[in-house]
Amino acid sequence: xxxxxWPDDIVVEKNGTKRDAHDMARMGKLQELRGLVVLNHPDxxxxxxxxxxIAISLVLFSLLNNTVLAQKLPLIEGVxxxxxxxxxxxxxxxxxxxxxxxxxxxxFTSFNDGGDWHSTGLAVLVGILxxxxxxxxxxxxxxxxxxxxxxSKTIPRIMLATMCINGAMGFIMLITxxxxxxxxxxxxxxxxxxxxxxxxxxxTPRGATTMASILVILSQFCAVTNMATASRQLFSFARxxxxxxxxxxxxxxxxxxxPLNAVLATSMFSILLICISFGxxxxxxxxxALGTVALLSSYMVSIGSMALLRxxxxxxxxxHFSLGRYGLAINILALLFLALSFVMVCFPPARDPTLQGxxxxxxIFSGVMVLSGVYYRGIARHKYAGPVKxxxxxx
Length: 395
Hints:
Blueprint: H1 21-26, H2 31-40, H3 48-66, H4 73-98, H5 104-109, H6 120-126, H7 129-135, H8 151-180, H9 184-188, H10 195-203, H11 208-239, H12 246-249, H13 260-279, H14 281-288, H15 290-312, H16 327-344, H17 361-378, H18 387-394
């Protein structure tokens, strides 16, 4: 269950542009730790390799929790959930009590088109990725469904609970930050690299480190659960013979009860990606830009398949959860929103971008799709048996 309703997920955008929000997110949320160091030691000069090493340490920490401490992972997540709720209150109350508040008129009626789009609406749409980051990911529970009891009933409930709780808490935190942000230009130009840390410092200099540390800890464990879900995706896809070297990735060693090879491969691939940032952060950011586009496309394929079955009048598989007669309408609305989001996240952060500032995610996505299509056409289609076929065989 992934809950995100925090200031570090609500990226303040400068003048209607994305302001490197993608870059900060891609290098891992532990980069917030470097921001804390800058806050407490102003003479510290951040180096690019510092961030890379911090990101690698995050991967190794996640690997430890997904292997040696794998049996304790449910207990750890329960403790982190308590910290999530308690920390939300611990951050919200000081902001409400101590922060100087902006006027409601300024919060709800001030818009900027600093990206030179000549349209406030377009500037807002270009920044659609930022609010999506706060709500995306409820499907993470699906990837753990084979390890959940009565998954067909439990997983939909978890996903709905995640969306409702996360949406409510995120909205409260968003409105709070909008009222408490103060001088936007000063906050965006903070030496810490993270506007929310500067907001905390402006509100309560003594408590800023503690408040931001809560987010750092939670971000660490978000990475732990991300590795758990990513490795299960690789394992299940390999079990269905849908990826190269599937015999290796699908192996589960007796007594471990975890797909160790898939976990190790996920960790190694993550570290190799991070190593690219030692040479070029631009290349790293462009490669990892694939994640958001690929995630949105996976949603479109899943929802589109359900909508197509409904349109054709074909019976759906028996399940404990159903959208009922509203299913088709909800599917179509979701597809329209995803299509809009897919297009907008491929936009550059501003008009007339430089070669380095261009958003190349759609190019990389297209390249991966071509390579995947070639692999499927040449090899995988002769081996791959989707999960639906396996379910029907069991039935």
